[in-house]
Design a protein that fits this description.
Blueprint lengths: L1 E4 L2 E4 L6 H25 L4 H9 L18 H14 L1 H19 L5 H13 L4 E4 L17 E4 L4 E10 L7 E8 L6 E7 L5 E4 L13 E10 L4 E5 L9 H32 L13 H29 L6 H26 L1 H4 L4 H9 L9 H12 L3
Helix pairs in contact: 1-3, 3-4, 3-6, 3-7, 4-6, 6-7, 6-8, 6-10, 7-8, 8-10, 8-11
Length: about 400
Amino acid sequence: MVTTLGSTTARELPAHGAADRTACAREVSAGFAERAAVHDRDGSFPFENFKELSEAGLLALTVPAALGGGGAGALETARVLGIVGKADPSTALVLSMHYIQHLVMARSARWPGRLARKLAKETIEGVALINALRVEPELGSPARGGLPSTIARRTETGWRLSGRKIYSTGAPLLKWYAAWARTDEEETRVGLFLVPAGLPGTRIVETWDHLGLRASGSHDVIFDDVVFPLDYEIDVRAPEEWLTPDFTQATIHAIFIAAIYDGVARAARDWLVEFLKSRVPANLGAPLATLPRVQEIVGGIEARLLVNARLIESFAGDFDDGVLLSAAESNVTKLTVTNNAVAVVEDALSLSGNHGLTRSNPLERHHRDVLCGRVHTPQDDSTRLSLGRAALGL
């Protein structure tokens, strides 16, 4: 069903539930997969993908149902991200960051209700993406500690923000930034400020030229004395109050990242299966798929993907059901799934040889994309270190 909301035409989310919405995600993602190679080659941003996601109602998937959105939980959202990730992980990564922010808005008492409702309405009506801009050149990821260099100065006319953010995924299309900054108050506070994109003093520097996820538009965003309203302060606290990370955000971030890279591995598996069934070397006189060695390696791939599916589904389902979970569990899920995904693609390369490394075939792109799974917070070393210290009682 299509409705007109404001000046934008948007399709209502299907009324029958998750099955319809995952089917809708498969439908729109078919076009994403067809365009993914071109965007990867050019490093261009897939604007058209987000227009189609908006028209399908999928940008509002995690907006609460009470506000007119899809009201999806972690499990359904992870399934959608896996589908989109299989088609184009760059699109899925931008989408996941947007989904996370709306889930946090819905669950956090610290998000001002007025702002949450405003952003919910906008994402229902059109392409109005939000992402949290946290990483800086000197600071790196805030997950490893330290104060941001980005400063918010309180004035009579509003906050004035100055600083530089890197790896700002979705920068070409974002309408809102949740910017991580510290205040210049006598007693410094740290936290998130909601900054509308495109304000005077804001610049996007196109620095993103990466090995993988080349279409994610993860450029630098520079704020040069950018003025925005005082009541656009989201969640700003004393630095020591941030020692314990937001559990909702950390948990769903880990599981959504896992789902995206599992999708990449499944795309690689599908290409490999077709290659092995159709490739008939002259000296063999039969498809490569008939070789026991090949069958064994493909069986190992299937085993890893089955483990991934079980981890993602059970963890996300437990989260939705309110089961008491730990950050260690979500971090281990992300570590295991992403490393399984890397291993799947590497096994596929071992069977396809030069064909898999040829740029005319998608496996080469899947390999570059899947390697990016390891760099997302939490990184593998942090997860293993925290587990080891806990086991040793340190």
